[in-house]
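Allow me, if you will, to draw on your knowledge of protein folds for a short while. I have a record of one protein: its chain in single-letter code and its fold written as discrete structure tokens. Kindly check, if you would, that the fold set down in the tokens agrees with what the sequence suggests. Thank you for your consideration; the sequence and its tokens are set out here:
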Amino acid sequence: MKTLRAPVGLQALAAAIGDAVTGFACVRTSTKIGERRPAQGAATSRHCPRRRHPALIRAVGAALLFAGLAAVAAGEPEVPPAPAPAYHAPTDPGELLKMDEPMRRFFRERLLPGGYGENQLRKLVDAILQPDGLNFAYDTEGVFDAREAFRQRRGNCVSFAFLVVAVAREYGYTVSFQSVASATRWERHGDLILSVNHINVHVEGGGDAYCIDLRPDLTEGLRPHEMQMIEDKRACAQFYYTLGVFNLGHAQTAEALQLMTLATKIDPDCAEAWANLASVQSHLDNLTDARASFERALRADSNCITALDGFVSVLLRLGSPDDRRIAAKYERRAQAIRDRNPYYQQKLAERAQEQGDWIAANKLLRRAIALKDDEPQFYQQQVTVLLKLGRDEDARRVAAKLEKLRLRLAAAENHPGR
């Protein structure tokens, strides 16, 4: 299988305000379609083109109440939400992959008449990514259907995947969305702490199979079994609940609830969709509904990380002896999820600092950095802790790492695609 890659998704698992939100690929060749051609004399880049936020991808996600983190973060001031995007997605999932005449005309001018195979696919992806085409830009919050992604010329991995799938099918390829759960990582988005998944596109044509991926860096070294083709209904459900996650981040709770509900109707077997819906219901204090939705999520996938901790939280809030007994049954698995969350470790470190336990705080921050080494806030907090411990030399060493990280992140944002 030849690799041409693209991204998706987002799965939010926790939020400082109490709610949170929530990706496929084939690996086995050095051929990657989805990268920009380098300028003459420039080094070839394998990063996302014009990626504005190198450390944050939104993806096929799920919003859910992350009980452990929410409890630790209680009492923090809320940050006023940024203005919400004006785009309103069609509520009919059948509209998400449709093309219109401007799109057809644009690609007719750039693709080979009757062309097929790898060369045609490269022309298709170049038409989207290259400066002489759409010059498609990565936008973390850009969750758009195929036509809107074409018009906007930007979007996240979900948008890119929908655009590629729509155009490739128009030209006769057998195309599927592909989820890359193994590319999951933790990111901060405003007040939300997200467990971010990845999505790309699987294409078959001319006897060969290809993976189109906008973020090759997220799937480098993965084996084919670590990526899974998904049906359109699952991709559409992911589209709506990912969009709902961003609505939630902009304090548009009613819109988020509508989108999460729609996702569960499109794909009733999608655990993340139910977990997202439950998170919004929990946020609205509809605890009975939230419990039922979390139970649906866990019936669909008993290991759904976007459901386990939120379910425990809701049960404890309901508070009956029966609810507490069930919560205790799930608590160990929920705690295992928290333990893998670097932002949970950071919040525990903040609590230790408040209690004057600087040794414990330093240990927790080292754990957070081991889980996620590109979050400046972790290093900044550790410098403070080390100075309190009188370890000035270690503090200077961590401060130097922080400065290098900030320069690297700034360079990635100022020179996206490198």
